[in-house]
Design a protein that fits this description.
393 residues, Cathepsin D, subunit A, domain 1, Pdz3 Domain, 7 helices
């Protein structure tokens, strides 16, 4: 007689890892190498706020075979009229040896995002949230990996807090509790958006809107599909997600023109962006509408913002300079005399061939007791300016 050992159910049900894919952090973006229909790898930002993958920019060295079936208009945040895109179906996206088949890919007719110039790295577009259905996906910010699991038998990982996901309009939302200027908390429905390079934005207009803090500054919040997003930045006293409480969060409040009709379609209060999400390691179980999160080493970091109020991109014709594309009204940058169109060539005597765009953005995101010396080229003349980085919120 042969004895058969019975394995515990929990061992049998242990989820099977299908693939583990490395990613790079650029700013606070997750950037993944993705091959489209066998192409050389493209650098795509993981953006859970868009449904499908979008190719925004191809360099002369990039080549992708896409079978376009129609044109469409993409709508999103911003005060413009949307953006024309070509639609391709039945595509295969390869992340290393892991393949995602039958995927839709959009290709923009105009690159309004300028992601490569804004990040200082080659960025070809976005990989959308349609990679989540059919698998359990772990976003491991600590080890910079995206891990795909077989959803059969998946159980909540130990040490992680469970949070229900609301699926609405083919996007993922969670509820948070928010303490702003009122003494009591309010539940808010928030889009989970790994591709939004901010901590959080909130709706300050319409029914049951969030009241903006008294101390706030005006600035450029970002670039949406419909165009530039402007509004105010301030801090909220406290927010909680699951059982985790976070204080003094920097929050953006887009103008009503930037929100357009988008909010009416989803009854949405705002967005949780990458600068908040990267404080957790996250499992997304899309098919069961569950999210699991656990704080990582970034959890207690202070929330920063563009203290200088100076928006920079990599210069197209001179890699050893940065171009100023916007200066916020009343900001330290404007007070220092920095102007749109200036080319920054040195910061504190360090010339730009020793600094990257990320280096300078990091300097401009921190308050400093000592003024920062900035050298700019303006009409082919060198101008030295003193930038006083004083926190205003």
């Amino acid at each position: 007689m042969v004895a058969i050992a019975c394995m515990p159910y929990s061992v049998l049900a242990r989820p099977q890892k299908i693939a583990s894919v490395p990613f790079e952090i650029v700013g606070s973006y997750i950037v993944v190498n993705v091959s489209v229909n066998g192409s050389e790898p493209l650098n795509l930002i993981l953006d859970s706020g868009v449904r499908y993958s979008i190719i925004t920019e191809l360099t002369p060295d990039d080549s992708v075979a896409l079978n376009y079936t129609r044109k469409t208009k993409l709508a999103g945040l911003g005060d413009g009229e949307g953006l024309e895109a070509l639609v391709s179906v039945n595509n295969t996206l390869s992340l290393g040896n892991f393949e995602l088949t039958n995927k839709v890919v959009y290709a923009l007719s105009e690159d309004i995002f300028n992601l490569s110039r804004h990040t200082g790295s080659r960025i070809n577009g976005l990989i959308g949230f349609d990679i989540f259905p059919g698998h359990v996906v772990k976003i491991d910010y600590s080890n910079q990996r995206i891990v795909f699991y077989d959803s059969d038998g998946f159980e909540a990982p130990k040490g992680y807090t469970a949070l229900p996901i609301i699926i609405d309009g083919q996007k993922m939302f969670v509820n948070i509790n928010l303490f702003s200027s009122e003494p009591e908390s309010h539940k808010r429905k928030m889009l989970v958006d790994t591709g939004a390079e901010l901590a959080m934005w909130l709706r300050a207009y319409g029914d049951d809107a969030v009241e903006m803090p008294e101390v706030k500054i005006r600035g450029l919040i970002g670039q949406g599909i419909n165009g530039e997003i402007r509004g105010y930045l301030g801090r909220v006293r406290n927010m909680s997600i699951g059982r985790y409480s976070i204080n003094n969060v920097v929050v953006s409040f887009p103008d009503s023109a930037s929100l357009g009709s988008l909010i009416n379609h989803t009854n949405r209060d705002g967005t949780l962006g990458s600068q908040l999400l990267n404080r957790f390691n996250i499992y997304i179980d899309f098919d069961r509408s569950m999210l699991y999160l656990r704080p990582n080493k970034n959890f207690k970091n202070e929330f920063g913002y563009n203290v200088a109020g100076v928006e920079l991109v990599q210069n197209k014709t001179d890699i050893n300079s940065l171009e100023v594309v916007d200066v916020w009204e009343g900001s330290p940058g404007e007070i220092a005399g920095i102007k749109k169109g200036d080319r920054i060539v040195a910061v504190d005597q360090l010339i730009m061939n020793t600094l990257t765009l990320n280096d300078v953005n990091a300097i401009f995101r921190k308050s400093s007791k000592r003024p920062v010396n900035v050298m700019v080229l303006r009409e082919n003349k060198s101008v030295n300016l003193l930038l006083k980085l004083q926190n205003r919120i």
